[in-house]
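Hello,

Our lab assistant flagged a job as stuck in the queue for most of the afternoon. It eventually completed. Since we weren't sure the result was trustworthy after the delay, we are filing this so someone can double-check. Below is the sequence as submitted and the structure that was eventually returned. Let us know if re-running is recommended.
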Amino acid sequence: MNTSDLFFHGDSFFHKLDASIKLLSVIVWTIFIFKFQDIRVFALFLIVGLIMLYISKVPAKLLKAPFIFIVLFTIFNSIFLLVITPQYGSELTGTYTYVIQTDHYAMTYETVFYMLTLSMKYLALLPITLLFVFTTHPTQFASSLNRIGVNYKIAYSVNLSLRYIPTVVDEMWTIKNALMIKGINIDDETNKIKKLKLYLNLLIPLMKNSIEKIDTISNAMDLRSFGYGKKRTWYRFEKFQTRDYAALATLVILMVLFLLFFAFEPRVFYYPFI
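-- returned structure --
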Protein backbone atom coordinates (compact mmCIF):
# COMPACT_ATOMS: atom_id res chain seq x y z
CA MET A 1 0.00 0.00 0.00
CA ASN A 2 1.35 3.43 -0.93
CA THR A 3 1.98 5.54 2.15
CA SER A 4 0.87 8.71 0.32
CA ASP A 5 -2.71 7.59 -0.20
CA LEU A 6 -5.26 4.89 0.62
CA PHE A 7 -4.97 3.18 -2.74
CA PHE A 8 -4.01 -0.51 -2.63
CA HIS A 9 -2.16 -1.63 -5.74
CA GLY A 10 -3.79 -4.67 -7.32
CA ASP A 11 -4.75 -6.31 -10.59
CA SER A 12 -8.41 -7.15 -9.97
CA PHE A 13 -11.37 -6.26 -12.20
CA PHE A 14 -12.26 -3.35 -9.92
CA HIS A 15 -8.73 -1.93 -10.04
CA LYS A 16 -8.91 -1.90 -13.85
CA LEU A 17 -12.40 -0.41 -13.98
CA ASP A 18 -12.58 3.27 -14.91
CA ALA A 19 -12.81 5.51 -11.86
CA SER A 20 -15.84 7.42 -13.19
CA ILE A 21 -17.80 4.15 -13.47
CA LYS A 22 -16.86 3.26 -9.91
CA LEU A 23 -17.87 6.71 -8.72
CA LEU A 24 -21.26 6.43 -10.47
CA SER A 25 -21.67 2.99 -8.88
CA VAL A 26 -21.09 4.46 -5.42
CA ILE A 27 -23.62 7.23 -6.12
CA VAL A 28 -26.28 4.82 -7.42
CA TRP A 29 -25.58 2.34 -4.59
CA THR A 30 -26.00 5.13 -2.02
CA ILE A 31 -29.25 6.33 -3.61
CA PHE A 32 -30.61 2.77 -3.53
CA ILE A 33 -29.68 2.38 0.12
CA PHE A 34 -31.24 5.64 1.25
CA LYS A 35 -34.37 5.15 -0.84
CA PHE A 36 -35.26 1.92 0.96
CA GLN A 37 -35.96 1.02 4.58
CA ASP A 38 -35.98 -2.72 4.00
CA ILE A 39 -33.60 -4.93 5.95
CA ARG A 40 -33.82 -7.61 3.22
CA VAL A 41 -32.52 -5.16 0.60
CA PHE A 42 -29.71 -4.01 2.91
CA ALA A 43 -28.70 -7.61 3.64
CA LEU A 44 -28.53 -8.31 -0.11
CA PHE A 45 -26.43 -5.19 -0.73
CA LEU A 46 -24.11 -6.11 2.14
CA ILE A 47 -23.57 -9.64 0.82
CA VAL A 48 -22.95 -8.42 -2.75
CA GLY A 49 -20.58 -5.74 -1.44
CA LEU A 50 -18.58 -8.24 0.61
CA ILE A 51 -18.30 -10.53 -2.42
CA MET A 52 -16.96 -7.62 -4.50
CA LEU A 53 -14.45 -6.79 -1.76
CA TYR A 54 -13.31 -10.42 -1.79
CA ILE A 55 -12.88 -10.31 -5.58
CA SER A 56 -10.86 -7.10 -5.29
CA LYS A 57 -8.31 -8.96 -3.11
CA VAL A 58 -7.84 -5.99 -0.79
CA PRO A 59 -6.15 -7.39 2.38
CA ALA A 60 -8.46 -7.92 5.32
CA LYS A 61 -6.06 -6.04 7.64
CA LEU A 62 -6.75 -2.84 5.68
CA LEU A 63 -10.51 -3.33 5.99
CA LYS A 64 -10.54 -4.28 9.67
CA ALA A 65 -10.30 -0.77 11.17
CA PRO A 66 -13.11 0.88 9.15
CA PHE A 67 -15.38 -2.13 9.71
CA ILE A 68 -14.81 -1.96 13.47
CA PHE A 69 -15.43 1.80 13.44
CA ILE A 70 -18.73 1.48 11.56
CA VAL A 71 -19.92 -1.39 13.78
CA LEU A 72 -19.16 0.62 16.92
CA PHE A 73 -20.82 3.68 15.40
CA THR A 74 -23.98 1.77 14.53
CA ILE A 75 -24.18 0.25 18.03
CA PHE A 76 -23.78 3.67 19.66
CA ASN A 77 -26.25 5.26 17.24
CA SER A 78 -28.84 2.53 17.84
CA ILE A 79 -28.57 2.81 21.62
CA PHE A 80 -28.84 6.60 21.42
CA LEU A 81 -31.94 6.45 19.21
CA LEU A 82 -33.57 3.80 21.40
CA VAL A 83 -33.15 6.10 24.38
CA ILE A 84 -34.34 9.24 22.59
CA THR A 85 -37.09 7.81 20.32
CA PRO A 86 -38.15 4.44 21.82
CA GLN A 87 -41.43 4.33 19.84
CA TYR A 88 -40.36 5.69 16.46
CA GLY A 89 -40.65 2.28 14.77
CA SER A 90 -44.22 1.98 15.99
CA GLU A 91 -45.04 5.36 14.50
CA LEU A 92 -43.91 4.01 11.13
CA THR A 93 -45.83 0.72 11.35
CA GLY A 94 -48.86 1.86 13.33
CA THR A 95 -48.52 -1.09 15.74
CA TYR A 96 -47.27 -1.07 19.34
CA THR A 97 -45.73 -4.22 20.81
CA TYR A 98 -43.92 -3.24 23.99
CA VAL A 99 -40.56 -4.63 25.08
CA ILE A 100 -40.31 -2.27 28.06
CA GLN A 101 -43.18 -0.23 29.48
CA THR A 102 -42.95 1.93 32.59
CA ASP A 103 -44.46 5.21 33.72
CA HIS A 104 -41.60 7.21 32.15
CA TYR A 105 -40.27 5.02 29.35
CA ALA A 106 -41.69 2.60 26.80
CA MET A 107 -39.82 0.74 24.06
CA THR A 108 -41.47 -1.31 21.31
CA TYR A 109 -40.35 -4.29 19.26
CA GLU A 110 -41.09 -2.25 16.13
CA THR A 111 -38.48 0.31 17.18
CA VAL A 112 -35.91 -2.39 17.93
CA PHE A 113 -36.47 -3.84 14.45
CA TYR A 114 -36.19 -0.36 12.96
CA MET A 115 -32.82 0.11 14.68
CA LEU A 116 -31.63 -3.23 13.28
CA THR A 117 -32.73 -2.04 9.84
CA LEU A 118 -30.91 1.27 10.29
CA SER A 119 -27.74 -0.50 11.42
CA MET A 120 -27.89 -2.79 8.40
CA LYS A 121 -28.23 0.30 6.20
CA TYR A 122 -24.93 1.74 7.48
CA LEU A 123 -23.19 -1.61 7.07
CA ALA A 124 -24.53 -1.97 3.52
CA LEU A 125 -22.89 1.33 2.54
CA LEU A 126 -19.48 0.30 3.81
CA PRO A 127 -18.30 -2.35 1.26
CA ILE A 128 -18.86 -0.21 -1.85
CA THR A 129 -17.19 2.77 -0.18
CA LEU A 130 -14.14 0.75 0.83
CA LEU A 131 -14.00 -0.84 -2.60
CA PHE A 132 -13.90 2.57 -4.23
CA VAL A 133 -11.35 4.01 -1.81
CA PHE A 134 -8.90 1.09 -1.92
CA THR A 135 -9.11 0.34 -5.66
CA THR A 136 -9.11 3.91 -6.99
CA HIS A 137 -5.98 6.02 -7.20
CA PRO A 138 -6.62 9.61 -5.99
CA THR A 139 -5.60 11.01 -9.36
CA GLN A 140 -8.06 8.67 -11.07
CA PHE A 141 -10.73 9.80 -8.62
CA ALA A 142 -10.07 13.46 -9.42
CA SER A 143 -10.19 12.82 -13.16
CA SER A 144 -13.43 10.84 -12.74
CA LEU A 145 -15.02 13.78 -10.95
CA ASN A 146 -13.91 16.05 -13.77
CA ARG A 147 -15.23 13.58 -16.37
CA ILE A 148 -18.76 13.67 -14.91
CA GLY A 149 -18.79 17.48 -14.93
CA VAL A 150 -17.17 18.61 -11.66
CA ASN A 151 -14.82 21.59 -12.07
CA TYR A 152 -11.21 20.42 -12.15
CA LYS A 153 -10.25 22.81 -9.31
CA ILE A 154 -12.75 21.14 -7.00
CA ALA A 155 -11.75 17.69 -8.27
CA TYR A 156 -8.09 18.39 -7.57
CA SER A 157 -8.93 19.71 -4.08
CA VAL A 158 -10.64 16.39 -3.34
CA ASN A 159 -7.59 14.59 -4.72
CA LEU A 160 -5.26 16.49 -2.38
CA SER A 161 -7.55 15.88 0.59
CA LEU A 162 -7.54 12.11 0.05
CA ARG A 163 -3.79 12.01 -0.43
CA TYR A 164 -3.17 14.11 2.66
CA ILE A 165 -5.19 11.99 5.15
CA PRO A 166 -2.46 9.32 5.63
CA THR A 167 0.15 12.09 5.93
CA VAL A 168 -1.77 13.71 8.77
CA VAL A 169 -2.10 10.32 10.50
CA ASP A 170 1.67 9.72 10.16
CA GLU A 171 2.38 13.20 11.54
CA MET A 172 0.10 12.54 14.50
CA TRP A 173 1.90 9.31 15.40
CA THR A 174 5.30 11.01 15.01
CA ILE A 175 4.30 13.79 17.41
CA LYS A 176 2.72 11.30 19.83
CA ASN A 177 5.89 9.18 19.86
CA ALA A 178 8.00 12.30 20.42
CA LEU A 179 5.85 13.19 23.43
CA MET A 180 6.23 9.65 24.78
CA ILE A 181 10.03 9.95 24.55
CA LYS A 182 9.72 13.08 26.70
CA GLY A 183 7.70 11.10 29.25
CA ILE A 184 4.25 12.34 28.20
CA ASN A 185 1.94 9.40 27.54
CA ILE A 186 -1.57 10.55 26.67
CA ASP A 187 -3.09 7.06 26.78
CA ASP A 188 -1.98 6.45 30.38
CA GLU A 189 -3.57 9.64 31.72
CA THR A 190 -6.82 8.90 33.61
CA ASN A 191 -7.81 12.48 34.54
CA LYS A 192 -10.07 13.76 31.75
CA ILE A 193 -9.05 17.43 32.12
CA LYS A 194 -5.34 16.63 32.07
CA LYS A 195 -5.85 14.27 29.14
CA LEU A 196 -7.58 17.05 27.20
CA LYS A 197 -4.64 19.38 27.89
CA LEU A 198 -2.21 16.70 26.70
CA TYR A 199 -4.17 16.34 23.47
CA LEU A 200 -3.65 20.08 22.94
CA ASN A 201 0.10 19.36 23.05
CA LEU A 202 -0.54 16.94 20.20
CA LEU A 203 -3.00 19.09 18.26
CA ILE A 204 -1.08 22.38 18.16
CA PRO A 205 2.11 21.05 16.45
CA LEU A 206 -0.05 18.89 14.18
CA MET A 207 -1.99 21.95 13.00
CA LYS A 208 1.24 23.95 12.62
CA ASN A 209 2.84 21.25 10.44
CA SER A 210 -0.35 20.87 8.41
CA ILE A 211 -0.61 24.59 7.72
CA GLU A 212 3.04 24.70 6.66
CA LYS A 213 2.48 21.81 4.23
CA ILE A 214 -0.67 23.47 2.85
CA ASP A 215 1.29 26.68 2.28
CA THR A 216 4.07 24.77 0.50
CA ILE A 217 1.58 22.98 -1.77
CA SER A 218 -0.29 26.22 -2.52
CA ASN A 219 2.94 27.99 -3.51
CA ALA A 220 3.96 25.06 -5.72
CA MET A 221 0.56 25.14 -7.46
CA ASP A 222 0.77 28.91 -7.95
CA LEU A 223 4.24 28.57 -9.50
CA ARG A 224 2.75 26.11 -12.00
CA SER A 225 -0.15 28.49 -12.80
CA PHE A 226 -2.76 26.05 -11.50
CA GLY A 227 -6.27 27.36 -12.17
CA TYR A 228 -5.23 29.66 -15.01
CA GLY A 229 -6.85 27.58 -17.75
CA LYS A 230 -10.51 26.58 -18.05
CA LYS A 231 -9.55 22.94 -18.61
CA ARG A 232 -6.64 20.70 -17.75
CA THR A 233 -5.27 17.32 -18.71
CA TRP A 234 -4.80 14.42 -16.29
CA TYR A 235 -1.87 12.07 -15.83
CA ARG A 236 -4.30 9.17 -15.31
CA PHE A 237 -7.11 9.59 -17.80
CA GLU A 238 -7.86 6.56 -19.96
CA LYS A 239 -10.48 5.86 -22.59
CA PHE A 240 -13.35 3.51 -21.76
CA GLN A 241 -12.61 -0.17 -22.33
CA THR A 242 -15.08 -2.99 -23.00
CA ARG A 243 -15.30 -3.78 -19.29
CA ASP A 244 -16.23 -0.15 -18.59
CA TYR A 245 -19.09 -0.18 -21.09
CA ALA A 246 -20.27 -3.53 -19.72
CA ALA A 247 -20.23 -2.17 -16.16
CA LEU A 248 -22.07 0.97 -17.26
CA ALA A 249 -24.73 -1.09 -19.05
CA THR A 250 -25.17 -3.24 -15.92
CA LEU A 251 -25.53 -0.10 -13.86
CA VAL A 252 -28.24 1.28 -16.15
CA ILE A 253 -30.15 -2.03 -16.07
CA LEU A 254 -30.01 -2.09 -12.26
CA MET A 255 -31.30 1.48 -12.13
CA VAL A 256 -34.27 0.56 -14.34
CA LEU A 257 -35.03 -2.50 -12.21
CA PHE A 258 -34.80 -0.35 -9.09
CA LEU A 259 -37.31 2.17 -10.47
CA LEU A 260 -39.71 -0.61 -11.46
CA PHE A 261 -39.37 -2.33 -8.08
CA PHE A 262 -39.97 0.87 -6.17
CA ALA A 263 -42.96 1.72 -8.36
CA PHE A 264 -44.69 -1.56 -7.46
CA GLU A 265 -43.40 -1.77 -3.86
CA PRO A 266 -43.80 1.76 -2.51
CA ARG A 267 -43.82 0.84 1.22
CA VAL A 268 -40.89 2.60 2.87
CA PHE A 269 -40.33 0.66 6.11
CA TYR A 270 -40.49 -3.13 5.92
CA TYR A 271 -41.75 -4.82 9.08
CA PRO A 272 -42.40 -8.57 8.68
CA PHE A 273 -44.95 -8.91 11.51
CA ILE A 274 -47.68 -6.64 10.15
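-- support follow-up --
The delay was a queue issue, not a problem with the job. The result is valid. The mean pLDDT is 82. The first helix runs from residue 13 to 16.
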